Each structure stands twice: as C-alpha cells, then as structure tokens.
Amino acid sequence: MESSYFRKGFGLKTAIEPLLAADYASRVVDAVRARGYVLQAPPLSFRLAREFGFCYGVDRAVEYAYETRTKFPDRRLFLVGEIIHNPHVNARLEEMGVTFLRHGADEVFDFSGLSPDDVVLLPAFGITVTDFQRLRGIGCVVVDTTCGSVLNVWKRVESYARDGFTAIIHGKYWHEETRATASQVTKYPNGKFLVLLNMDEARMVIDFMERGGDPAPLVGRLGNSSSPDFDFVRDLERIGFANQTTMLAGESLAIAEEFRQAMLRRHGAEAAAAHVRTFDTICSATQERQDAVVKLLEDPPDLMLVIGGYNSSNTTHLAALSAGRGVRTYHIEDAGGIDPEAGTIRHQPVRQKRDVVDGPGWLGDARVIGITAGASTPNNKIGEAIARVCATASIDLEAALLR
Known about the structure:
Layout: E1 5-6, H1 13-24, H2 27-34, E2 38-41, E3 44-48, H3 56-71, E4 77-80, H4 87-95, E5 98-101, E6 119-122, H5 129-138, E7 141-144, H6 148-162, E8 166-170, H7 176-183, E9 193-196, H8 199-211, H9 216-222, E10 239-243, H10 249-267, H11 269-272, E11 276-277, H12 284-296, E12 303-307, H13 313-324, E13 328-332, E14 338-339, E15 344-347, E16 356-358, E17 368-373, H14 379-392, H15 397-402
Parallel strand pairs: 1-7, 3-17, 4-5, 4-6, 6-7, 8-9, 8-10, 10-11, 12-13, 12-17
Antiparallel strand pairs: 2-3, 14-15, 15-16
Helix pairs in contact: 1-3, 6-7, 8-10, 12-13
C-alpha cells in the first residue's frame, strides 16, 4: 500500500539543487561572506551579521516543497497557509503550481475541495491537531515540513498536558506556530494552555496568583489566548513553560524565571518542583541570529537593515533588538522596499503594523550599514538589498566586488 504521510524527504535533493540555487543563491552575499562579512563600497561599508537568513528548518521546508513538486508533477498540490513567512518564497511556490489553502472568517482552513488524490504540504510552523486529523480523514497525501525545533516544543507541551500541568506558552496567540503548539494539549481531556505575549501579561498573571482578586480583567485580556473554560485559579496550580520558537529567547527565559520565583514564594523550594516545570526548547537558530545582531551592534553601525517578511516573528524581533539599542533601523519586507530611482525606502517601524515610506535622503550621512535577515529570507533578497542601497548612493557595486 502506498504511504500517504511523508516527513523525511524523497531523496531528490540532487535534482532540485539547480532550481534552488537559481531561485535563492546570491553571489553578492557569497562575496561579502568571503570578505569576513564586510564589503567596502566607498563611501559605504556593509557589515553582515554572521548568522542570518535561512535556518536549517526553513532550508528543509523549502527543499521538501521543491522535492514534492518534482515527486508529484501531475497531482494537484496544496499548501496549508504559507510554507514560511517570506513573500518571495511563497510567490515562487505559486508559480510552481502550488495552491494555498487560506483561513476563512472563522479561522478554519477550508479543506472542502480536497480529495484523496491530492497532495498537501504542511508548513514549517506546523498545523493544529484538529487540522491534521481532518487532512488524514480525507485521505490525501500529506507532506510534513514542520520544523524539528517546533516538534520539540510540541513534545514538551504534550507532556505537560499528560501530567496535569497547564502549558504557559510565550508567543503570539494568533501566530500559526503558537496555535499549533497550544493545540497539542487537546490530545488529553483536561489539557490546558495559556499564551502570554510579553512580560507585562506574565506579571498580570503572577500578581493574580499571589494576590488573588477578581479574574475578570485577566479573562478580558487573555480569554482569546487560553484554552476553553480556562480557570485562573484552578489552572495555575501546576504550570510548565514553552515558547514560540521565534520569540526573543531572553524574554522567554525571563518570563519562565518570574513564574518559577512566584512558585518558590508560594510553595517553598522543596514543594515548588511539583508545581512548576521549566523548559529547554529555545530554538538554536533563533538564538544564533539574535546573538549575531547583538555582536554586530557592539560597534554600532550608522543604520541597520533588517530584511524579512512583516509577518515573520523572528524578523520583527531582530528589528526590535537593533532599534532597542538606539540604532536607526529599517525593517524592509523585501529588497523591493528600496527604490533607488525615487530614492525612497518602504519599511515597517518597530512594533507597528503599517508601511512607512521615507523619502529621498533616507540614507543621510550613514557610512556603515549593518545588515541581517530573518530565518525565512533567502540570500538573493539580501544581495538585492545591498545592490539597491549601492544604486541609491550611486555606488558601482560591481567595482566594489572586484576590489
């Protein structure tokens, strides 16, 4: 009987490598890396963070999508949501004949048009337990590109639910990954979760745990980010921690520590272990990219370019790290955000959900340009961004590459 679930690839990497190189490689980035992550293009100097762009999980997801198209050339191929949060990569998949399945107004994916003959890709973020069961019920071929780091978090959350602990998840409750992670508690009848966006929300919950009072304000703020019928008295007696893998790792650890200290105060050192579990599921790729930005900013550039999708959590956190250290920061979704002819840059200010266009002169007197990119940004878009900055400043990039 033919398998209908695949997770380990089809052995077609050699066949797809030329396509991947043509779509995503960059000789500019290769040249910058070969020069010690610095490119001199007088009067500008570009400094590239030493960890940037595609991580292992994204590489795997994109490769697997290309392999799937090659493996099933004549079948209808669908993708649940987006493979990763990068508009260029997703547009390329559409060009390859991949149909994107979207949420309806009720936040439920429409699988009504699928049949057992269809092939469905699961994104790097994963999907909810319910959505997975729905797909398996249809009987279509499922190709699972869920990142291994995400799967590690799922295992931890599932273990909490199995053992009667509420999963406290540091993440964005509306994000695909966090929704999928939280759903893991549904594998057990009394599984509970609570998603916290930041330290402010964490401290609200801790204050209630320690002081009591009316839970209505918590229900009003966190009702949409907790499991159904969540009880802020009953369900915070035993808690365990997890995080959306693309959040700021330092904040995730700090939130977990605040709760651990609260449990120590409440139950004492000997009993606290029975009430709180910490976690070791920080994504190494996310951490490495954040650490690389911090290292680059030890000698601050005049401005920082952060390249990646506006809906990419790890990219927005890289931008926040840079701006938080006082460096003029531009988060651009794609290299196309830089328009050399008009002399403008279209970007998203940190912690804002809106496009802003800065007019001619946005480079100002900047001479050192720092660059990083989210884990879902391909190298060619980084290289194009460097080229567009050079064009804006009337610099001959080709001459700089020959030096």
